[in-house]
Amino acid sequence: MLANSLVELDRNHLIHPVASWRGHEQAGMRLLTHGQGAWVRDGEGRELIDGFAGLWCVNAGYGQPSVVEAATRQMTELCYATGYFGLGSEPAVRLAARLAEAAPGDLDHVYFTLGGSDAVDSTIRFVRYYWHARGLPQKQHFISVEQGYHGSSTAGAGLTALSAFHEGFGVPYDWQHRIPTHDLYRNPVGDDPQAVIEASRSALMAKVEDLGGAEHVAAFYVEPIQGSGGILVPPAGWMAAMRELCAELDILFIADEVITAFGRTGPLFACADEGIVPDFITTAKGLTSGYVPMGAVFMSDHVYQVIADGAGQAAVGHGQTYSAHPVSAAVGLAVLDLYQGGLLENGRIMGERLQAGLASLSDHPLVGDVRGRGMLAAIELVTDKKTKARIPAAAQPATRIFDRAWDQGLVLRAFGWGVLGYAPPLCCTTDDIDQIVARTKKVLDLTLDDPDIRAALR
Ligand code: PLP
């Protein structure tokens, strides 16, 4: 009963992110009430394994007592401290120092935000300020990658390369550009890793040329693994090659690790997988494991020094009331303790099991591609393995597959073009992972029985 009245209130008053508003009015909300470890409970008392860690953010798992205690203690002692007027709080300083220590290379300076979108937005502003301070204000253009996602702030949504974030919103702006994705499964140059890397390098060089040369280009913004674009993993060496090219061209290289950081692919930062040191890294999500909102911009020392010298005694006019919020920072420290105290290691082991388990479904008639790294994975469905024909829109993959999984007690992400996404909490047990795989098999079998799929199957 309570659930029913909440669904009604939700329908009338709560606007949901990235939703069809009319569709949501019809379908109504599914209520979540509890979470423990890798499991959540819905409004009807059903227990589900959360194969997507909320929105790929609850990396440490639900209900961790040390995180709850840290937040409670901090709220009791000091619920808020501004960073303005030269003030600060102990957890914010300690978290910045520990993160700087753990981050690759000279990424020694941390600016805290409220989430990923404003981490991207802050970075765009810092990049502009940097080039201005270097006396090169004409370096204005940003380049990102098709299928990339960089949040939905006014500026970030234009770097995002997914049409739903553009249409009707007046973005991208004329300083925002894209090169094709490195997608290994559907790349026009084929699936040879070297050829894909070469194609991306050439595309970036050509784009820079088109824009009048590197003296007009500010930055290249990229995810180590494209998340919201369908969990697209670049070939090994792709990130390093692009990083090297940007350094040659004197273009800032920015890694958007909002999804990939904090153990999602194994280490604390995915850039560590390829030994890369970007000029900036943007993060959020796993930083506080979804317990409270927080994001972070990591800035390399050479960028920081230019901005600091450029401003001199003047204020660098960028800030938010809740930057470096002490409760979020206390949560961040508690979560970091968990990661470094064994969760990263567990995530590595479970990640291997997840990848192997999902790969074992490759022979299923609907499975075209299985890909991923660590605790981040995808299955791409097709109706014809040879031609890689996508499953038809009439089969409504986003809703029907999501619903089937839910009925099996599994939360996953179902992308509208027939991709199943996985990002379970790092605290999963072997049984949790095996359940995710077994329930996925059931979902695939049920999907095979869908008349709209059957009609398209070859
Ligand atoms: N950047 C990337 C790579 C993301 O995946 C996301 C969110 O999924 C964002 C930025 C935006 O983060 P938020 O939703 O916290 O604003």
The CATH superfamily title of the largest domain: Type I PLP-dependent aspartate aminotransferase-like (Major domain)
Radius of gyration: 22 Å
Average residue pLDDT:
97
Order of helices and strands: HHEEEHHHEHEHEHEHEEEHHEEEHEEEHH
Into how many domains do the coordinates divide? Answer: 2
Count all strands and give the number.
16
Strands ordered across the widest β-sheet: 4-10-9-8-7-5-6
Q: Which parts are unreliable, with pLDDT below 50 for 5 consecutive residues or more?
A: none
Tell me the structural class: alpha/beta
Overall shape: it is globular
Roughly what fraction of the amino acids lie in strands?
15-25%
Task: Describe the protein in words.
The protein is built from 14 helices and 16 strands. It has 458 residues and is an alpha/beta fold. The protein has 2 domains: 31-64 and 342-456, Aspartate Aminotransferase, domain 1 (Alpha-Beta Complex), CATH 3.90.1150.10; 81-324, Type I PLP-dependent aspartate aminotransferase-like (Major domain) (Aspartate Aminotransferase, domain 2, 3-Layer(aba) Sandwich), CATH 3.40.640.10. 47% of the residues are buried. The structure holds pyridoxal-5'-phosphate. Residues 115-117, 120, 149-151, 223, 227-228, 256, 258-259, 284 line the site of pyridoxal-5'-phosphate. Residues 115-117, 120, 149-151, 223, 227-228, 256, 258-259, 284 line the site of pyridoxal-5'-phosphate (PLP).
